[in-house]
Design goal:
The protein is of the alpha+beta class. The chain is built from eleven helices and 23 strands. The structure holds ligand ISC. Ligand ISC binds next to strand 11, strand 15 and strand 23. Catalyzes the conversion of chorismate to isochorismate.
C-alpha cells in the first residue's frame, strides 16, 4: 500500500489554516495522489461503518470509476438550482487549496450529485432526504481512470485545527479504506409488493393518448412505482456488485444519504464533457430482447422501422439539437438512429457530439436538456403539466440527471432511470415509458414491467 506523504499533506493543511482569519472561517483543502490497485467496491464497503454518506459511479464504458465517502463540502438548492449550485461551486473552487499534479478527469475536487425530476412538484415523505438539487465533495475519493488509481483527500479546515494531528487522523482512516472490506453476498427475499392498480395506471395512459389526439401535446412520458419489502435490510455494496455483473454498458450509481440510498443501472447518458468535447445521447424507443439471436435481430429490425418508436425517438433528437446549439460548435448528429442492445431491452440510440463553447459548463447544458422528451415529453411545458396533474407519483430523483463534475470543467451526467430508492428493508422501483398518440396502455404497462427488471432482479425479484 502506498502511504500518504504525511508531511506534504500536513504542510498543505497548515498553509490553509494559517490563512484563516476568523474562527468560523472554513477552507477546503484537497490532496490527490496516485495509489496502487484498489477495489472500488471493497473501498465502498470498508467505509460503511466510518461514513454515513457514500457515493458510487461507473461510466457505461467502465473507463471511470468513482467511489466517494463522507462529505467534505456540500451544495444544495431548492430553487434556481443551477445558478445556486454553480455559484457555490465556483466560490468554493476559488478559495480551495488544491494539490493535484495529474490532469486526469475525475480526480481532485469532484462534486457528485443529482437533482429531482421536477422541483415544482411537491416533495413527499418518500424523498424527504433528497433535496431538489444536492452535490457533495467526498472526504475520500477513489478514482479509477483506465487502469490507474488515484486517491483524493478533501477536508474543510478551520482556524483552530492542528495540521499535523489532522493529517494523522486522515492517514488512519485512509489505511482502513484502502485495506477494503469483502463485499457481502446478500440474497434478499421479497416479502411484500405493492403498486398502483394497473387498471388505474393504464387509465392515465388512456387520458394521455386522448390529450395527444386532441393536439394539446405530442408525447408524454408516464412512470409508475413498485414498492417492495424485504426479509432484511439491503446491503448497498452487494446490490452494486450484482448490477455490475448483470447490467453491462450501463452507468451504475449509488447516492447514499443516511439510511436511504438511490441506486441504479441506467443506459442513458445525458451529457459528458471531457476537455470541452461534448457528448450527448438520444435514447428513446424500446423493444424487448429476443430469446435467440435470430429473434433478437428480427425485433431489432422491427424497432428500427417502427413508426411509433421512431417518432418517440425523434422528439428527443430534435430537442437535444435545439437545446444545445447555442452552447457549442461542430455539432454532429447521424441522420438515423441505430439499435442499442442492453441486458433486458433494446433501444433506439443516436449519439450527439460537439465542442462546448468557452465560458459554458456542463451545468449549463444540463439546464438546457433536462428533462428531455425521453423522460418528460414534448412540448416540455405541456407534457410536464400533464405529468404533474395526472401521474400521482413523486418521482424524486428518478428520471433526473445524476453524475459528477470536476474543477477542470469535465463531468458526466446520466439520466437516473432503471433505478430504485432503497430504505433499509424497503425499496421503491421506478419505470416509465413514452406515450404517443397510438400507444396501447396494456403494451406500455408491459414495457414498464421489463424496465423494472434490472433493479428487480438484483433485489430478489
Ligand atoms: C422512462 C424510461 O425510459 C426512457 C428511456 C428509454 C426509452 C424509453 C421509451 O422507449 O419509452 C423512455 O423514454 C424508464 O426506463 O423508466
Amino acid at each position: 500500500m502506498i502511504e500518504i506523504k504525511e508531511d506534504q499533506l500536513a504542510s498543505l493543511l497548515n498553509g490553509a489554516i494559517e490563512q484563516l482569519q476568523a474562527e468560523d472561517d472554513r477552507r477546503l483543502v484537497s490532496f490527490t495522489k496516485k495509489i496502487a490497485t484498489t477495489n472500488p467496491l471493497q473501498f465502498f464497503e470498508a467505509a460503511k461503518h466510518i461514513f454515513e454518506n457514500r457515493t458510487f459511479w461507473t461510466s457505461s464504458s467502465q473507463m471511470l470509476w468513482l467511489t466517494g465517502v463522507g462529505n467534505a463540502f456540500e451544495m444544495g438548492a431548492d430553487k434556481s438550482r443551477f445558478e445556486v449550485i454553480e455559484a457555490a461551486w465556483n466560490k468554493m473552487l476559488n478559495e480551495a487549496y488544491i494539490h493535484n499534479p495529474y490532469e486526469v478527469p475525475g480526480t481532485g475536487i469532484v462534486a457528485l450529485g443529482g437533482m429531482s425530476f421536477d422541483p415544482i412538484n411537491a416533495q413527499t415523505e418518500l424523498w424527504k432526504k433528497f433535496r431538489p438539487s444536492q452535490f457533495r465533495v467526498p472526504e475520500f475519493l477513489l478514482t479509477k481512470y483506465n487502469s490507474s488509481y488515484y486517491l483524493t483527500i478533501n477536508v474543510c479546515v478551520r482556524k483552530n485545527d492542528h495540521a499535523k494531528q489532522l493529517a494523522e487522523e486522515l492517514r488512519q482512516i485512509e489505511q482502513k479504506l484502502l485495506l477494503g472490506q469483502k463485499v457481502p453476498d446478500d440474497i434478499l427475499h421479497i416479502v411484500d409488493e405493492s403498486e398502483m392498480d394497473p387498471e388505474k395506471w393504464m387509465d392515465i395512459v388512456r387520458q394521455a393518448t386522448d390529450e395527444i389526439r386532441n393536439q394539446h401535446v405530442e408525447k408524454i412520458v408516464l412512470a409508475r412505482e413498485l414498492r417492495l419489502t424485504f426479509n432484511r435490510h439491503a446491503e448497498i455494496s452487494s446490490i452494486l456488485n450484482n448490477l455490475l455483473k448483470t447490467q453491462p454498458n450501463s452507468y451504475i450509481f449509488a447516492y447514499e444519504i443516511g439510511d436511504d440510498c438511490f441506486v441504479g443501472a441506467t443506459p442513458e447518458r445525458l451529457v459528458k464533457v471531457e476537455k470541452n468535447k461534448l457528448l450527448s445521447t438520444c435514447l428513446a424507443g424500446t423493444a424487448p430482447r429476443g430469446k435467440t439471436e435470430e429473434e433478437d435481430m428480427k425485433i431489432s429490425e422491427a424497432l428500427l422501422n417502427d413508426e411509433k418508436n421512431r417518432q418517440e425517438h425523434d422528439f428527443v433528437v430534435q430537442m437535444i439539437k435545439h437545446g444545445i446549439k447555442d452552447y457549442c460548435t461542430e455539432m454532429t448528429i447521424p441522420e438515423v438512429p441505430v439499435v442499442r442492445p442492453f441486458k433486458n431491452l433494446q433501444h433506439l440510440y443516436t449519439p450527439v457530439t460537439a465542442q462546448l463553447r468557452d465560458g459554458f459548463t456542463i451545468l449549463d447544458i444540463i439546464k438546457q436538456l433536462h428533462p428531455t422528451p425521453a423522460l418528460g415529453g414534448s412540448p416540455k411545458a405541456e407534457s410536464l403539466a400533464f405529468i404533474r396533474e395526472h401521474e400521482l407519483l413523486d418521482r424524486g430523483w428518478y428520471g433526473a440527471p445524476i453524475g459528477w463534475m470536476d474543477s477542470s470543467n469535465n463531468g458526466e451526467f446520466a439520466v437516473a432511470i432503471r433505478s430504485a430508492l432503497i430504505q433499509k428493508n424497503q425499496a421503491s422501483l421506478f419505470a416509465g415509458c413514452g406515450v404517443v398518440k397510438d400507444s396501447d396502455p396494456q403494451s406500455e404497462y408491459e414495457e414498464t414491467k421489463i424496465k423494472l427488471l434490472p433493479m428487480l432482479t438484483v433485489l430478489g425479484g
